[in-house]
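In keeping with the milestone schedule agreed at the kick-off meeting, the structural modelling team has produced records for the first pair of proteins. Each record is given below as a sequence line and a structure-token line. The laboratory manager (R.T.) confirmed that both were archived under the project's standard naming scheme.
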Amino acid sequence: MMRFLATLLALLGSMAQADTMRLAVTTSFHNSGLSDVLIPAIKEDIGLEVQLLVVGTGQALRLGQGGDVDAILVHSKAAEEAFVADGFGTHRREIMYNDFVFIGPKADGAGVKDAITAREALQRIKARNAPFVSRADDSGTHKKELVLWADANLEPATFGAWYKAVGAGMGASLNTASGLGAYILADRASWLNFGNKAGMALLFAGDPALFNQYAYLPVNPERHAHVNAEAATALEVWLTSSRASALINDYQIDGEALFVFNAQ
């Protein structure tokens, strides 16, 4: 704890008046409600005001590439590693994880709840041409969905009208699925915090393929000299601290934890 405080004091001393930063985060993270817990704690602990830009992972990465934010918090490992390899981010730091789940109508006409794997769940949906809502927004959830379809040897470009590409965030997409009685891939945190559950249920989870890691990536100041690198570093120190660990692990809805802290 003393080392943590000493590091923060040194960083905050170098920040001087630069006590505000811009952080691009995913809609799934924001919809979980965790940001409402973390952002005030960050301000209280280290005096840093974090301004959130809530977008999909793809857009968050583009904001980082353009130097429009100081750091990003997203969940698509391959895209994150490419971001760093291309010199747009200084490094990638894993912070916490949860998992993706399949949501659908309680009647479950496609039998998704009886699937053994995520691959089989999607194959069952396709076999029945059951309504399926895709975020189709280049988000981390959308990227994961496409990987899962490919793993099931299925190609969404060949699907018919039952496949609804809505181009929206997690909350809006869940609302669409609820209205249509359709299946959807969601992150567990967004589902637990979703208010319009009538007629819908979590039908499948637990496949290791549905693991969902969130990572923090500071934007490279050598690419964009104006970014607030000191604040981004101070935030990283806080996000990987015991204080953040406790807040993340203790955050629950209806007695169920939404995230697991795993920063090292």
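The second protein of the pair:
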Amino acid sequence: MPVPTGATLAVVQATHLRTLPRTTSTSRRALSPGERVVAVAATGAPAGWYKVKLGTRVGWVQGNAVVVAALPGSASAPRRVEGVSVVYLVPSDRAERPGAADAMKRALRAVQAWPARHGGGRTFAIVDEPVARVVRAQRTAAGFNASPAGASPTATTLHDNAVPEVLAAVGASFAQPRRVWIIYVDADPACGSPHGGAAVTGCPGVAVLPSHDILGLLGLAGTGACTGAERALEPVCCWVGGLGHELGHALGLPHPVGCDAHLASCDSADLMWLGYAAFPRTAWNAPDRALLAQNPLYWLFPVQQPSASCP
């Protein structure tokens, strides 16, 4: 995908500035992660390559080694109010977990950088500060599993109770097609739900992740909501991948074809199925990318944290 002339590209993996757009051509200079180059041509570049300038040197760099760090004129651009943001919903009977909001912000930026490295610089937009805001809930942690008229909690009860609280607190609604809300609520789904107390729900425009995802981002195991036993400690990357999976749903992506039916044809390595556990060594597959290309929040956006590593 072409980038505008004058766009700043951040190097995210070791590569070379080459005289021609092929890996066998002469290296004009080795490039290290963290260095920045400037795009000098918006068109005419072979697929997978950018023509760039480093100081006075002009050459070619492979697209999967760089991400868009700034667009021309972005320094004076207005604050971005469209995109993805995080809400940390703290129940009335719980205290805010130290470092949790920062961990959520770092995770979102890591997920943003991940597709930019493999999709020609395209990724999803993140709103300007506050990327992650803390909202004090009216409900207790247990109250998030209360169903109307005493009905038994279901897999969506936590989601159905959390979303209205957040939308009311931030003055939002589902009628905002260019906003996506990631809600971390410090409560567990009801024990006995169809997902065994580990439900994570996403739908277009919003995704809800429960307390064990918060603990996971903080590098903590916690205890099972149903058993009370200590959970196995999973890598932080697994929980960052879980955020990417649910964000995919919020952006309109389904599970891969055949996966819900447990067919052999299921693309199980896709981020939208089991690939979240291997993040960042996973992918949004071709059907995912085709759907994302139609989403106005998935385009050529600057990445502030160019590394796709986990916090």
